[in-house]
Design a protein that fits this description.
The chain is an alpha/beta fold and 563 residues long. The chain has 16 helices and 23 strands. It is globular, with a radius of gyration of 23 Å.
Length: 563
């Protein structure tokens, strides 16, 4: 995040791009049908941040209650709480669920012309099903310290709970449970809207319990948002300033009989841009033409939340009851919260949620596999649990390097998680394009400690910003695990000999960008997250900086720059 920090230091006005408007003028608004396939995090955060902003601004209980009247509530936490891990302190864990559904709250299809022609999200209301394409846990410490936000990548292959109990992508737990519940409810004379409501309750419960099991934490509250409404929220707040490390161009590819199509049409320069509502949708949706696909989209969602929070706090929305009421009236339409959520209590408990004291991280994956014809992220559930417990202050024991933890836990057996913990095989060459002295030597030693044979070590001939991992035939599995270490995707290359992996440490490589276990006595850089960095002074490192996260953290309190 070195580049991001520098950009933030420049101030929002520098590098500013002119607002983009969709061709043909401002889009119409048929019904409430402006959507996006993964805007989800932005809307969920708009709800949570709006609530906390109200409390932080000193509104009275009456005003808060008036604004919160009309929110849809759910009892999906009831079963989840019965099966939750014990609470170890008085902290609060809030799960933000972003539902990728092209149906409204009553199960009605969204207008197909809007979905296909304006949002470029396919041609059918069935596309996307009831996947949860954004899952973010906000951990609010009991002492009111820094809020930690953790994103769970949507394609993580995990043991589901409350669905069919089998291994699935985490995003699928909701839809599987909903379909099963709907089948049991059919024939009971329920209206379409009531059938939708009750079956969605099963989906919510399954999602909450699956996240609880994966992270080994209790979920105290949740907020769910569907695709409807993000455009309205973005419209109420536009323009929304975001920042990109590099220019992006994501042309729309038409759907054909042999290609699913895709693309958002987004085209932005590097630096700051002020987005209207339509481009805000594209910003949080884009996954094609990004170095790390869905994983980069997760960082986009996090950055968008930070930008919304910054705008609420800095540009006059906070403290203006009229503006907040307008925003909250939009949020009410399609946000579902648990029925135990006391809004006033939460607003008083989470002032740091609106003070820029929030850091977003993405939980690590172990690699990639294809199962049943679908690409999935392999994960190490034991490692994830250790990371979460240490990050939340419940476990001070050092977290081991990813491949040292095994794949055990609920995702073991024939799953790819078990494979992700196996020793790495092959030979690895490491080249340094970063500004960290002797980084290549340090990384070579760390990778050979994980089972690889040491190859060439030296300075890179090129200087990519992001670390790259390329591999020859027969090295795909190990290369995927190596790439996960740096938060990137491995790429096959015919120019690389069989059984060999080539790592080029990019210019963004820093002392906190990876996790391993180097011996500091060899003079290598101390980039390792298995234990706290050594050195004099009383400085205490940020716990997240010493843990194996998926890519760099996204910090609130400004406008973070992302890919």
């Amino acid at each position: 995040m070195a580049d991001s920090g520098q950009r933030q230091g420049q101030g929002p006005q520098q590098g500013q791009a002119r607002p983009r408007r969709p061709q043909g003028g401002r889009p119409g608004r048929p019904g409430r049908s402006r959507l996006s396939p993964a805007l989800v995090a932005g809307r969920a955060a708009a709800c949570a941040v709006s609530v906390a902003v109200l409390g932080a601004s000193g509104f009275t209980w009456y005003e808060l209650k008036d604004l919160s009247d009309g929110l849809t509530t759910s009892s999906a936490l009831d079963e989840a709480r019965r099966n939750a891990p014990p609470h170890l302190d008085k902290s609060v864990n809030l799960l933000l669920i972003g539902l990728d559904s092209r149906k409204d709250m009553d199960g009605n299809d969204l207008p197909p012309d809007v979905v296909e022609n304006e949002l470029h999200a396919g041609s059918s209301s069935d596309i996307g099903g009831y996947n949860t394409n954004s899952l973010i846990v906000l951990h609010i410490p009991a002492n009111g310290g820094k809020v930690t936000a953790l994103s769970v990548p949507r394609d993580d292959y995990v043991q589901t709970v409350g669905a069919d109990g089998k291994m699935h992508k985490v995003k699928e737990a909701y839809g599987i449970a909903k379909d099963a519940a709907e089948g049991k409810l059919q024939g009971k004379g329920l209206s379409k809207a009531e059938l939708e409501r009750q079956s969605r309750e099963a989906g919510r419960s399954a999602t909450i319990q699956t996240v609880q099991k994966l992270l080994d934490i209790p979920i105290d509250h949740f907020a769910e948002v569907n695709l409807i409404g993000f455009y309205d929220i973005a419209t109420a707040l536009q323009p929304i300033r975001v920042c990109l490390n590099h220019p992006v161009s994501d042309p729309i590819i038409a759907r054909t009989a042999t290609h699913e199509g895709g693309g958002t049409g987004l085209k932005l320069p590097a630096g700051y841009s002020d987005l209207n509502a339509a481009d805000a949708l594209s910003f949080v949706r884009q996954r094609h033409n990004l170095p790390n696909g869905d994983l980069d989209r997760t960082h986009r969602q996090q950055a968008f939340i930070a930008s919304v929070e910054y705008k609420l706090k800095q540009q006059g929305v906070v403290g203006d009851l009229g503006q907040m009421q307008k925003l909250f009236n939009v949020v009410k339409k399609d946000v579902v919260i648990d029925n135990r959520w006391d809004i006033l209590d939460f607003a008083q408990q989470a002032p740091n949620l609106t003070g820029g004291n929030v850091e977003f991280n993405t939980l690590p994956i172990s690699g990639f596999r294809t199962i049943g014809g679908e690409a999935v992220n392999t994960v190490n559930p034991d490692l994830i649990k250790r990371i979460v417990q240490q990050l939340f202050g419940h476990d001070q024991a050092p977290v081991p390097a990813p491949s040292d933890s095994g794949g055990g836990g609920g995702d073991s057996g024939a799953s790819p998680a078990a494979d992700s913990g196996s020793p790495l095989k092959g030979t690895v060459d490491v080249y340094n394009a970063s500004n960290v002295p002797r980084a290549a030597a340090g990384e070579s030693k760390a990778l050979t400690d994980l089972g690889l044979k040491a190859g060439r070590v030296g300075e890179a001939g090129s200087h990519p910003r992001s670390t790259t991992v390329v591999y020859g035939s027969g090295a795909r599995s190990s290369a995927g695990q190596v790439a996960a270490r740096y938060g990137v995707t491995a790429t096959a290359s015919s120019a690389v000999p069989a059984g060999r992996i080539v790592v080029t440490l990019g210019t963004s490589y820093t002392a906190s960008s990876v996790t391993a276990s180097n011996d500091p006595s060899d003079g290598a850089s101390s980039d390792q997250g298995a234990s706290a960095p050594s050195g004099g002074g009383d400085a205490t490192p940020d716990p997240a900086s010493t843990l194996p996260m998926q890519g760099p953290a996204v910090k609130a309190g400004g406008i973070p720059c992302v890919d």
